Amino acid sequence: MDRLRERGVAVTNAAGIHAPSIAEQVLGSVLTFARNLHEGWRRQQRREYRHYQAHELGGSTVTVVGLGAIGHAVVDRLQGFDVDTIGVRYTPSKGGPTDEVIGFDDAAVHDALARTDYLVLATPLTDTTRGLIDAAAFDTLPPESVLVNVARGGVVDTDALVTAIRRQSIRGAALDVTDPEPLPEDHPLWNFENVLLTPHNAGHTPDYWPRLADIVAENLSRLDAGDSLENRVD
Question: Which GO terms describe its cellular component (predicted)?
């Protein structure tokens, strides 16, 4: 970066292009647990036509950790589901699309977790967020809560998660990312019926290249006009 800066070369990235697909996967995970669709799938595999209990998403509280492009997209897609939303971000004074916005203060975070039905992790992995959802966090979350992680595996203490699942301290988890990653074949997370695992796949979309091209085209226009570049990182 220093060498590029010395030569006057601007650097941009593709931040935000995965937000729609990841947000849709989050919503799919939340609705799967809300309606217990994974239990329906298991009964179909056994050709077992027998009713089971389900929940409703409406009236729930969804806490979204990280209010970047992905977090915003998740909250946008929750509109119309009659849920309360809490956002967690580094600078809560900036506000956000959620009903309530808090920072990473321990007391504020645990107060939010105690009210959370669905916890969505969409934050970068930093010194602040590494191990954020630890044993104490699982103790604070209600037993009916569901964890959805589309951030990085290191945001969650994996051993604490396994313990919480075994003790039924939470209702389940949908994990697109894990720590370690890839998850070893003998890891206990593979064996829980209330854990949905996908191989860091939430960002996949056939629209990846068109969205990338849109950013490049927009920045070419801005460069010609002498305007500031989109997604500049230097």
Answer: cytosol
Residues 200, 176 contacting (CB under 8 angstroms): yes
Query: 63 forms bridges with which residues in the sheet?
Result: 86, 119
* Mode of pairing for the β-strands spanning 84-88 and 118-121: unpaired
What residues are labeled active site? 152, 181, 200
- Count of domains for the chain: 1
Encoded tokens for 141: 């979350």
Specify the amino acid at residue 36: N
In a domain, 234, yes or no: no
What residues pair up with 133 in beta bridges, in sequence order?
156
Mean pLDDT by 10 residues, the chain (234 residues): 93 95 98 97 96 97 98 97 98 97 97 98 97 98 98 98 98 98 97 98 96 96 95 90
Question: Is 146 a member of any domain?
Answer: yes
Beta-strand runs (E) in 59-154: 61-65, 84-88, 100-102, 118-121, 146-149
